[in-house]
Amino acid sequence: MSDFTVELRIAQKGEIKTVRQEAVRYLGYKNANPDDITEKLISECEKELLQVISGRACYAHTNVKFPSENVVDLGFGEILSKSLHKHLYGCHSAILMAATIGIGTDRLTAKYSRIKPAKSLIIDALGSSAVEYWCDVVEQELTKNEKLHCSRFSAGYGDFSLEHQKDFARCLDISRKLGVTLSDTLLMTPAKSVTAVIGLGKNTRTCGNKCQICTNQNCIYRD
Q1: What is the pLDDT of residues 110-145, one digit of tens each?
Q2: 84 in Cβ contact with 158 (< 8 Å)
Q3: For residue 87, which of 98, 79, 76 has the smallest C-alpha distance?
Q4: Nearest-angstrom CA–CA distance, 140 and 146
């Protein structure tokens, strides 16, 4: 198992934004527009959420090896995954990353789940869009000098087992670096937290649409 040099990135005030279009999709509207009452509620929730977001991210570079068919070695052990192998094949190295927008979203959703469930659902959706926005910011920074790279790929995509969340948590020391813990059921706290791998290399491809690399054809968020 390799030793990883983990670096930390802390978001500046106001750096993280929500993406209302994505949040509306998470709420199940797809191509429809919310009514005026819902739009007003979304605006209220957005204002509250942005006041409590606290972004942190950590990352480490690692070599990538392909010891056998459908097996990838990211430095912490061999991973059997056809999806991950296909996504990373040809990469010479990779970046392991983890990011969170902090516990504030969890607290707000818990608060409103008791007194106004509609706001709880909206804040949860806005939080999901915000952590993806933050991940995009970090990913763009980490790959700005890389002409070609793969988009980030998380445990849970395709047949890349969620069990490997444990490897990311251990190698990136997310508990100490980010204040993120992993439960026995592989759920992260704060909930709006992400782990992923970004492949680097001359033979890789860049994909800007996550739905194109996900095999879940029945996902309600799919285009």
Answers
A1: 999 999 999 999 999 999 999 999 999 999 999 998
A2: yes
A3: 79
A4: 10
Neighbours of 175 (CB within 10 A): 12
Cβ(124)–Cβ(178) below 8 Å: no
Rounded Cα gap, residues 222 and 138, in angstroms: 23
Q: Token pair 């592989």 is at which residue?
A: 186
Q: Where are the beta strands (DSSP E) in 17-76?
A: 56-63, 65-68, 71-73
Sign of CA dihedral 126, 48, 113, 102: positive
CATH architecture of 7-213: 3-Layer(aba) Sandwich (3.40)
Give the residue extent of every domain in the chain.
7-213
Structural tokens at position 210: 């996550």
- Cβ 127 vs Cβ 83: under 8 Å: no
Two tokens at 64?
């990538």
Kindly give the interhelix angle for 104-115 and 117-142, rounded to the nearest 10 degrees.
160
Rg of the Cα trace of the chain? 18
